[in-house]
């Protein structure tokens, strides 16, 4: 089904649906009038004698060079070809399709000066599955994501390469097979299409949605670990968290209480438990995961605003003046990406400590060493825990903020840049690590829960246990574990583990 996008009012929920579904999108018809108005204004300037940046001048450091009217079409084409300088492996088609949808939203605000013909082609490419091949590296997140967006536009003019029906082919062939024709860019259209933060924002949104999926799964595995370790549920008491007041902390504590409600494992030892307090990785889950949830929600609000923003240059204002500014600078996206990276790192770090606790008989309250059926003869999850530590370490190393770096470019015309694009792109790898780490916790916690038999876990966690055991069998003796860990990772990555519990228990991305 094609999603209808109302520029300036597209919600984070719509963007999340668009990302996970990879579906088509088009602008609401109400956007057409504004786009036509600004396109007429640009056409008038292109036909006149007044120099206006990006319409009849060169670009960046070359802005002082006047371009003849007869060369304006060639200027736009040359801009795209010269800026197709991306390197590295192609971005996933899910990311590129989200980039294209974000560009639609920005153009639809009616301040960019492109003709409806341009917008209709992007919509048709999304509908018919023509997805440009876009190298993942080459943007510093200022003056727009120039290189990656240029590769998108290259397909629109019949250059470069595109994916269609799972095949990589020349863009001209992909357009022809899809029944589409390349466009000839008019004044400013190439610049409007490559100026903007749509690559950085698409990558940051993907990182956000993946991070949130990992967070939700970590609440399930954290509750499973708590029950496996026979931890106290007193630290999740509602009043404790109300007294502090942070919304994320309150929401996480509520989820943990609901997940653990009715556990016979916990009820079995309330009266005679010799432990006074549990380690922080169990007791402080609301404080840590809640802070991560708050951080993701903050980043989500920033990215929702950015997704609806006009970020090219120059802009056609409401009084039809055309002015140059700097909305292409992706500093807000860079900060959001760094916030998400910190949250991803911490979600994984506390989960790894729970895995470590479960395999350590000095901490796990009666569970066998490394959760092995016969420790010594069998090693159980000894190296699965090592793998979780390796993943945690990788994410810590990648969590250093990208936004604090800046390398001047374009002969010092673009002398401060955001580094948002690769700051956001690293989130794909970090969340991939997080999915694997939470998957390992799911395996360890399920093993611990089963060791508590005949005592039963809570009804909600029993649903989560069924999801895990549907993919990963009880580890009664050592076996080849890599496939099990891959299966557990998939449960986290595709949302099945979080989706196993009743709707409404886990917190949402919106506060």
Task: Describe, in plain words, how this protein is organized in 3D.
- Helix 1 packs antiparallel against helix 4, helix 4 packs across helix 9 and helix 17 crosses helix 19.
- Strands 4-6-7 form a three-stranded antiparallel sheet. A two-stranded parallel sheet has the order 1-2. A two-stranded antiparallel ribbon has the order 3-5.
- The protein folds into two domains: 194 residues, Orthogonal Bundle (Fumarase C, Chain B, domain 1); 284 residues, Up-down Bundle (Fumarase C, Chain A, domain 2).
- It has 511 residues and is mainly alpha-helical.
- The mean pLDDT is 95.
- The chain is built from 20 helices and nine strands.
- Helix content is 54%, strand content 5%.
SSE topology:
Blueprint: E1 3-5, H1 12-21, E2 25-27, H2 32-46, H3 72-83, E3 87-90, H4 93-107, H5 116-128, E4 131-132, E5 135-137, H6 146-156, E6 161-164, E7 167-170, H7 171-177, H8 189-194, H9 198-228, H10 238-244, H11 247-260, H12 264-267, H13 280-283, H14 285-307, E8 315-316, E9 322-323, H15 331-359, H16 382-398, H17 420-451, H18 459-469, H19 482-493, H20 496-499
Parallel strand pairs: 1-2
Antiparallel strand pairs: 3-5, 4-6, 6-7, 8-9
């Amino acid at each position: 089904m094609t999603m209808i996008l109302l520029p300036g009012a597209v919600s984070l929920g719509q963007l999340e649906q668009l990302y996970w579904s990879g579906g088509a999108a088009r602008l609401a018809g109400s956007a057409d009038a504004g786009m036509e108005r600004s396109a007429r204004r640009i056409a008038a300037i292109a036909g006149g004698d007044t120099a206006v940046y990006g319409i009849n001048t060169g670009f960046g450091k070359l802005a002082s060079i006047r371009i003849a009217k007869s060369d304006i079409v060639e200027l736009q084409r040359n801009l795209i070809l010269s800026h197709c300088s991306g390197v590295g492996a192609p971005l996933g088609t899910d990311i590129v399709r989200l980039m294209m949808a974000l560009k639609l939203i920005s153009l639809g605000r009616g301040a960019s000066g492109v003709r409806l013909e341009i917008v209709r082609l992007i919509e048709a490419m999304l509908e018919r599955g023509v997805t440009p091949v876009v190298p993942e590296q080459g943007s510093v997140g200022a003056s727009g994501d120039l290189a990656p967006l240029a590769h998108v536009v290259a397909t629109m003019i019949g250059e470069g390469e595109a994916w269609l029906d799972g095949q990589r082919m020349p863009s001209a062939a992909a357009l022809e097979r899809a029944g589409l024709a390349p466009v000839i860019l008019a004044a400013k259209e190439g610049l409007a299409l490559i100026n903007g933060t749509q690559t950085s924002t698409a990558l940051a949104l993907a990182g956000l949605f993946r991070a949130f999926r990992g967070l939700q799964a970590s609440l399930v595995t954290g509750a499973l670990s708590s029950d496996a370790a026979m931890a106290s549920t007193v630290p999740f008491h509602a009043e404790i968290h109300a007294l502090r007041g942070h919304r994320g902390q309150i929401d996480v504590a509520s989820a943990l209480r609901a997940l653990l409600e009715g556990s016979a494992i916990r009820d079995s030892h309330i009266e005679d438990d010799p432990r006074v307090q549990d380690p922080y990785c169990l007791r402080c889950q609301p404080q840590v995961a809640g802070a991560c949830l708050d951080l993701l929600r903050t980043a989500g609000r920033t990215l929702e605003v950015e997704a609806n923003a006009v970020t090219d240059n120059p802009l056609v204002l409401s009084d039809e003046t055309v002015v140059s500014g700097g909305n292409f600078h992706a500093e807000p996206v860079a900060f959001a990406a760094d916030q998400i990276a910190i949250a991803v790192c911490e979600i994984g770090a506390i989960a790894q400590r729970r895995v470590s606790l479960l395999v350590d008989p000095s901490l796990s309250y009666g569970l066998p060493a490394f959760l092995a059926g016969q420790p010594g003869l069998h090693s159980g999850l000894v190296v699965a825990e090592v793998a979780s530590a390796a993943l945690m370490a990788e994410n810590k190393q990648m969590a250093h903020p990208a936004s604090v770096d800046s390398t001047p470019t374009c002969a010092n015309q673009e002398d401060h840049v955001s580094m948002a694009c690769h700051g956001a792109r690293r989130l794909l790898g970090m969340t991939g690590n997080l999915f694997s780490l939470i998957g390992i916790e799911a395996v360890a916690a399920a093993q611990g829960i089963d060791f508590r038999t005949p005592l039963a876990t809570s009804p909600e966690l029993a649903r989560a246990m069924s999801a895990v055991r549907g993919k990963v069998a009880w580890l009664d003796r050592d076996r080849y574990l890599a496939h099990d860990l891959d299966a557990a990772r998939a449960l986290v990555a595709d949302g099945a583990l979080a989706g196993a519990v009743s709707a409404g228990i886990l917190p949402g991305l919106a506060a």
